[in-house]
Amino acid sequence: MTTMLPIVPSPGRKRPTIRDVAREAGVSYATVSRVLNGREWVSPEAVRSVREAISRTGYTANPHARSLATGRSGSIAVLLTEPQHLLFEDPNFSVLLRGFAQALSDRELTLILMIASTPEERSRTIAYLSGGHVDGVLLVSPHFGDPLLSQLVKAEVPIVACGRVLGFEQLISSVMADDRNGGRAAVEHLIEAGCTRIATIAGPQDMVGGVERLQGYHDALIAHGRTIEPALIVNGDWSRASGAAAMRTLLDQAPDLDAVFAASDAMADGALRVLREAGRDVPGDVRVVGADDSGLAATTEPPLTTIRNPLDRIGEEMVRLLTELIAGRTPLSITVPMALVVRGSSPA
């Protein structure tokens, strides 16, 4: 058996090119280009041949040359429109970022994190994105009515959002969890457990996740002949502090409540702390259900029943959709299901 050793360029030898790789692999130049750019319409055999040829020739991509040849930067912006502190406080962001980083790395694309929560940051962001520095945008936490959205569309940069963008459904592709049915499943679980006074700490109503999870709460109550009581609904902003404040308000407005559906795990954790301070046993006196099944959910006291938001899959799908948009495909939206995860804060 003959062992093929890598062909290492000598100091005086020119740098291997894509054509060298194509000749070594026995495929066309176009096939090598498609493999290097992560295109999907290449056979597994061709991909394997090209990768083996890359290893033997010692070929490495020249990002500058590729950019000149393709008109692309090889960079993708992950755009967060929330204040910077939420990047570290909300565990969902870290899960999404990890998924983005892996999916982009697999495609040899560079991740650029951008935060645009103030007017000054928005102006700098639009100027940068309009300058051709990135090939596309992964948009996290879009808010309805944010002027940044129309500016992004005018910049004609391919965009995929995490969650449907209210008012821009036909212009901005999105990947979202089935928040409405997830919220309904959470409240159905509480109804089946015998709870009669079910409150909710809703998410922001200028974000589709907040709107849809609240609608799921309404759906479940109406389906069971329950009345929608304004005193049992308080809004938060996804954070632990807002969950605590909302729980205090709920205890004042409806002291006889026996269950709470919080639209995020962080808000549920805040509610758990306030209930504990008020001497309410969970789940004996009040059952609590959160949302997202973030890393926080299993660490609360007691561990949190929650609806799982498949953020790892959402991140992968967002990157896949964005690369298709960049390649010229039509914008579309994808919805992925959520699932109830039962723990100690509301056992079966």
- What can be said about the biggest beta sheet? 6 strands, parallel
Structural class comes to: alpha/beta
Assembly state here? single chain
The CATH architecture of the largest domain can be named as: 3-Layer(aba) Sandwich
CATH homology group of the largest domain: Response regulator
The Rg value, from CA coordinates, equals: 25 Å
Which sequence of SSEs, written as H and E, runs from N to C?
HHHHEHHEHEHEEHEHEHEHEEHEE
The CATH class of the largest domain, by name, is Alpha Beta
CATH level 3 topology of the largest domain: Rossmann fold
Helix content: 40-55%
Summary of the model, kept short:
With 348 residues, the protein is an alpha/beta fold. The protein is built from 13 helices and twelve strands. It starts with 17 loop residues before the first helix and ends in a 7-residue tail after the last strand.
List keywords for this structure.
Rossmann fold; 348 residues; single chain; 434 Repressor (Amino-terminal Domain); six-stranded parallel β-sheet; alpha/beta; six-stranded mixed β-sheet; 16% strand; 13 helices
